[in-house]
Structure formats: C-alpha cells, structure tokens
C-alpha cells in the first residue's frame, strides 16, 4: 500500500477534511494520530478507522496551546516512535463584517488558523529534523487568494498560512522536510454550512439562495466532497510527491477561473 506504515499527525482529525483524510490515509496503510479539540468526535473517527482495519490513535489538544500539542506529539511518539507527515487541518471560520469585528472575534480566527498552524508546524518539525525527512501539509484556502465580503479575518488568516508555508519550506528544506499548503475551494463540511448560513444572512439571503449562488461560481458545478481533498493530501504524504515544496495547491473545481 502506498502509505504503508507512514505515521501521519492530523490536527482537526475528528471530522470534515481532517477526519476524512485520516480515514483515506489509514486505508492506504498509514498509522494515524488524530488530534482535535472535540474528544467525542475524534474518538468516534478513530473507532471507525479501526473497525475498517486501520491503525489510529487519538489525542485531545487545542492547537493554540503549545503544551497540549507537545503532549499530543508525545502520545503519538509513544505509540508509533516517529512522525513522518503532519497535516494541519484544524481551522475555524467565524464570519464578521470588517467594521463590526471585535478584537476577540479577530483573535479567534487568527489564533486557531494561524497561530495554531505555526505552533504545530514548529513542534512537529523539531521531531522530524533529526530524521532528515518529513512532510508538512498546511490548510490554506481559496480565500487566501479570492476575497470574500464579511469573511475578512478568515481570508487574512489563510493568506498568512500560505506565506508561512513558503517561509517554512525555505527553512526546512535543508533537513529534507517539504512544506506545502492546500487551498480547498467550497467543500461540504460543517464549516462550509455554517459559513454559508452566516454569510447569506449578512447579505440578506436565505441559505439555499446563497448555496445556489456559490455553486454557480464553481466551473465544475458542484460543492466538493472532503474525500476529494483527502486524496490530494494522501498524494502529498506519498514519496511520489517529494519534489513539491513551498507552494499552495488550489483544489477548487476551477473556481479561481470564475
Ligand atoms: N470546508 C471548506 O469549504 C473549506 C475550504 C477551504 C479551507 N477549509 C479549511 O479546511 C480545514 C478543515 O475544515 P473543515 O471544512 O473540515 O471543517 P470542520 O469544522 O468539519 O473541521 C474542523 C475541525 O477542526 C477542529 N478544531 C477547531 N478548532 C480547533 C482547535 N483550536 N484545536 C484543535 N482542533 C480544532 C474542529 O473540532 C473540527 O474537528 C480548516 O482549516 C478550514 O479552514 C475548508
């Protein structure tokens, strides 16, 4: 199997894109360390992976808390002895217009999406460096390159993740570690449902009207599924993608052309 025995640390590994990636990579033979804030849901995802014959453990951690991420890394090392790949999928999208945004709302998106990715990259890279090998995959978004009204901090946070990825690639390449980002378009998960509901409200539209409007902006004509992102991440964890480094890969059904 193409990911046989690769150890993959996944934040946001309970559900959505991270949860589905855990399942897909386990199906290709990887050992999964699924990390999330949501204990019940991450436990359930790991149980489902094991029931399907996969190998996985879970840990509860808030990506904003360095000590919690370090504890999750230690749990993974105790179970599997090393970490080959990191997939940072934990993220949030709290909608707010620029002028109404409180400092707390600003911090919420930025702390989880940017600082959480920064902390996890740094702590996992320290484990990878002595092995002179590793893969880091961060989750940016189409929102890093395509502005969205009432979604300012999210767009800014994802642009920061793409730039963090480029800088890290320069610093980590000498250690044989590649760092890339994915930029999903509109993918059917809880974040998308909540974001479309709130952005629709902010624009005075009901959710089905906003959904239809968004779908019309996608040249492929449909909202993507988490599995369509998970398969790309599986490829980026695979030795065949070894020369991809520093860039952000858009996976958006052609949306950037719309
Ligand atoms: N769904 C989309 O359309 C879309 C598009 C572009 C980018 N993304 C990004 O994909 C990533 C995954 O999102 P999703 O769509 O699967 O949503 P999701 O809500 O289904 O999954 C997000 C996961 O992150 C976890 N999480 C949130 N805050 C956390 C924290 N502080 N510490 C640890 N875990 C935390 C949640 O518990 C949840 O399990 C996010 O970074 C999101 O911004 C999603």
The CATH top-level class label: Alpha Beta
Strand content: 15-25%
What is the percent of helical residues? Answer: 40-55%
Ends distance: 37 Å
Which architecture would the CATH scheme give at its second level?
Answer: 3-Layer(aba) Sandwich
**Number of helical segments with 4 or more residues:** 8
CATH homologous superfamily placement:
NAD(P)-binding Rossmann-like Domain
SSE layout and pairing:
Layout: E1 7-11, H1 16-27, E2 31-36, H2 39-51, E3 55-60, H3 66-80, E4 85-88, H4 103-128, E5 134-139, H5 152-172, E6 177-184, H6 190-202, H7 207-215, H8 226-237, E7 248-251
Bound molecules: nicotinamide-adenine-dinucleotide.
Residues 11-12, 14-18, 36-38, 62-64, 89-93, 112, 116, 139, 141, 184, 186-187, 189-192 line the site of nicotinamide-adenine-dinucleotide.
Keywords:
258 residues; alpha/beta; 15% strand; 8 helices; binds nicotinamide-adenine-dinucleotide; seven-stranded parallel sheet; Rossmann fold; 47% helix
Characterization of this structure:
By secondary structure, this protein is an alpha/beta fold. It has one domain: Rossmann fold (3-Layer(aba) Sandwich), CATH 3.40.50.720. It has eight helices and seven strands. The protein has helices spanning 16-27, 39-51, 66-80, 103-128, 152-172, 190-202, 207-215, 226-237, and strands at residues 7-11, 31-36, 55-60, 85-88, 134-139, 177-184, 248-251. The chain has a seven-stranded parallel sheet with strand order 3-2-1-4-5-6-7, with helices on both faces. Strand 4, helix 4 and strand 5 (134-139) form a beta-alpha-beta unit. The longest helix has 26 residues, at 103-128. Bound molecules: nicotinamide-adenine-dinucleotide (NAD).
């Amino acid at each position: 199997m193409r990911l046989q025995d690769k150890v993959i640390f996944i934040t946001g590994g309970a559900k959505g894109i991270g949860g589905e990636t855990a399942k897909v990579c386990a199906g290709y033979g990887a050992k999964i360390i699924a990390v999330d804030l949501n204990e019940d849901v991450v436990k359930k995802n790991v149980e489902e992976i094991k029931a399907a014959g996969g190998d996985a453990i879970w840990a509860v951690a808030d990506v904003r808390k360095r000590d919690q991420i370090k504890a999750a890394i230690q749990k993974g090392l105790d179970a599997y002895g090393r970490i080959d790949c990191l997939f940072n999928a934990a993220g949030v999208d709290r909608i707010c217009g620029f002028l109404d945004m409180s400092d707390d709302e600003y911090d919420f998106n930025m702390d989880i999406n940017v600082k959480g990715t920064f902390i996890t990259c740094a702590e996992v890279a320290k484990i990878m460096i002595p092995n002179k090998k590793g893969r880091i995959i961060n989750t940016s978004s189409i929102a890093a390159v395509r502005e969205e009204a009432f979604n300012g901090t999210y767009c800014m946070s994802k642009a920061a993740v793409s730039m963090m990825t480029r800088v890290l690639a320069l610093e980590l390449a000498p250690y044989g570690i590649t760092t890339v980002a994915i930029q999903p378009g509109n993918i059917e998960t809880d974040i998308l449902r909540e974001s479309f509901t709130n952005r629709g409200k902010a624009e005075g539209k009901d959710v089905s009207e906003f959904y239809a409007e968004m779908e019309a902006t996608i040249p492929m004509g449909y909202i993507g599924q988490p599995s369509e992102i998970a398969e790309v991440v599986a490829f980026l964890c695979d030795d065949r993608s070894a020369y991809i480094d520093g860039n952000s890969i858009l996976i958006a059904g052609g949306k950037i052309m719309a």
